[in-house]
Structure formats: C-alpha cells, structure tokens
Design brief:
Length: about 160
Amino acid sequence: MKPVQIPSRYSVRAAIAASLCHGDAALLHTALQLGLSPRSLQRHLAGMGTSYSDMVAEVRLDTACYLLLESNERISDIALRLGYAGTSSFSRVFMRLTRMQPVIYRRQRTVQGNDKSRLVKEPHTGNPQKPSRLARNGKTSSQPSGSNVVRPRQGKKPF
C-alpha cells in the first residue's frame, strides 16, 4: 500500500480557495486536487478537529473579509464569487458570523483608512471630534470597536 502524503491545513485551505475561484468547492473536487479520496480528506480533517464544511465556511469568511476591505468589488459580485446564491444569502451568513452587515464591515476600511476611527468625544481629553454619520442622524448606534471586528490575517491573502 502506497503511503498517503497528509496535506497541511494551509494546503487544504489553498485547495478550497482555488476550488471557490472555479465556482466549485465540492469535497470531491478539493480532495482530488490534494490527491486524496473524499473520505480520506474527511478523516484527515476530523483528525485536525474540523470538518470540510467548517473549512469552506472559514475560507469563505476570510476571503469575504479580505475582498470587502481590500477591493472595490461589488458585494453582489463577492457573494457570487464565493458560491452564494445571491447577496441576501451571503449577507445573512456574514451577519451571523461577524454580527455585522457586509456594507458596514466595508465602511470600516474607509473610516479607519482615513484615520477617523475615533468619531465620538474622547472622555479623557474632552476634545469633541466629528460625530459619526449615525450620531448626526439622531440614531444611537455606536461605531464598532476594534475588538469585536473580524479581520483577515494581516498582510496575507485569506488562504
């Protein structure tokens, strides 16, 4: 019996990302790309404490975050590129995983990229700064803090 080369987590993620680019993130396609049977890939992932569907969701989320922050691609195009049926299904999944709508997540780039991440009064200095658009419209929603924002790995593509 021929020994099977066990792929790393990174190579599985890269194979899934490549499959997503071709519009087919099916287990069979990814397993064949890695030179494994689908069942062997499932066993390998189970040994790593994850599943194929969890890995696909992880790659999709990382790729979505990367594209939302680093590209000007329309959200509907990102949704289709990642294999979602449409913008609404993508938005529901993104909202469930990040607790933030994709459009709001994308706006962070503009706000943080312009160094306007503090758009409310600073309590320590008392210096009023420009209030956020939501505050100017009379809504009480606050700017998302950096600690609960999901971001892709810094300086790297999502896979």
